[in-house]
Amino acid sequence: PPTTIHRVTNELEDLLxxxxxxxxxxxxxxxxxxxxxxxxxxxxxxxWLEGILLILKDSPTxxxxxxxxx
Length: 70
Description:
The chain is an all-alpha fold. The chain contains three helices and no strands.
């Protein structure tokens, strides 16, 4: 739902604005139960999270457009 996307987007932006170093990001995410290792996909944690943020920010627009196309 859009409210969840908005909440998660805000929380992710807050985390990224903390300017944590890579090991701190990894530690924070591991404490939250993360088991994805972005370096396996040639990413670091910050780039991975920034990519997720882009998807979340784009999601409401894409969903609206897809609904209108139907």
